[in-house]
Amino acid sequence: MSSDYNKNQTTPMEFILLGFINIKQEKNFLFLLFLTMYIICFLGNALIITVAVVNPSLHTPMYFFLANLSFIDICYISVTVPKMLADVWAKTPSISFIECAVQMFFLIMLAGTEGFLLASMALDRYFAICRPLVYTRLMTIWLCFQLSAMSWMCGFLNSSLHTVLTFRLSFCQSNQISHFFCDIPPLLSISCSDTSVNETALFTVGVFVGFSPFLFTLVSYIFILHAVLSSRQKGQRQKAISTCVSHLTVVIMFFCSGIFTYFRPTSSYSLEKDQLAGVLYNILTPTLNPLIYSLRNKEVKLAMKKLLMREHPPLKCRVFYDT
Hints:
Layout: E1 14-17, H1 27-54, H2 61-88, E2 94-96, H3 97-130, H4 135-138, H5 141-167, E3 176-177, H6 184-189, H7 196-229, H8 234-262, H9 271-294, H10 298-308
Parallel strand pairs: 1-3
Antiparallel strand pairs: 1-2
């Protein structure tokens, strides 16, 4: 396979992406599938941002976090999918060294930011449902901005660390990445340098960036479910349970696929398994988020209807689940 790679160099001019190399018959299907999911994700999240911004009745902590999540998901899926769509038809899919570093930086940053933002959203729902009497006093707009800024800062610092550690390595044996896009595990697996520092950083920093937000979100929803199950309003209880379960499903899918990818030795890297995990947390989750978190919500549906009709009368906002 030809490339600009020179075995005497420690830094290749480009990497070859092997994700679509061995796929022959399914290329049309994959192209249409990824394109459809990208369009759904982009339009769905863009619609949520628009509705949350232009409708004053949705200027609440919950919709502030949802708009942030939608913006992250648009950026997140745009980092990889357009390049993947082009690579489906490429004879030899490749990406330059600089483009690979930039793609990985934004991929890791946005993934880390989303993890902390999901934890912030879980905190908001916990206060709204389990501590309703103090909700408006605790969840101020200033706290929302602080939680959002902290999420972005943690994602940025985490990505900066891993990007620097990864691209200081030498790639003198191969420039072929066994994935659809540039990610830490496949890059470590082709490096001829000592990657022990990188793997240690993945495990230690990952406990804070991956496990901590996941456990916090999980525990928050356990308290939320307990409060919901204790409610005497049967009809509202069933709706809230349905919402909590759907939220938890997406959260578990996002965190577990990410944990599977980054919390294991690079020697156990598998092209097929990691491609599946990459599709789950990089494409499927951003596509499902607007459908699960917002588009099933009655307030959002009503706000969209008013937006389309170009009418914006005030809506009565509630702090509990209403789907």
